[in-house]
Design goal:
Helix content: over 70%
Number of strands: 0
Strand content: under 5%
Largest sheet: none
Structural class: mainly alpha
Number of helices: 2
Length: 57
């Protein structure tokens, strides 16, 4: 806690708030990308497989 002793209370508050915002944004982006990849993985095999089976030439 020596690091916090030199900082004022508003600086600690805003630093913590900034860390929470950055972590929240990273989590939001990660969840969106994971959901998008899962949706693409679910949709592509269903669409692609019947087309290649129906038209072998």
């Amino acid at each position: 806690m020596e690091m916090f002793s030199s900082m004022t209370m508003p600086a600690i508050f805003f630093t913590g708030l900034l860390v929470l915002v950055v972590l929240g944004a990273a989590l939001y982006i990660g969840v969106r990308l994971a959901g998008q990849r899962r949706a693409e993985a679910e949709h592509h095999p269903r669409e692609a497989a019947p087309r290649t089976d129906r038209n072998p030439d």
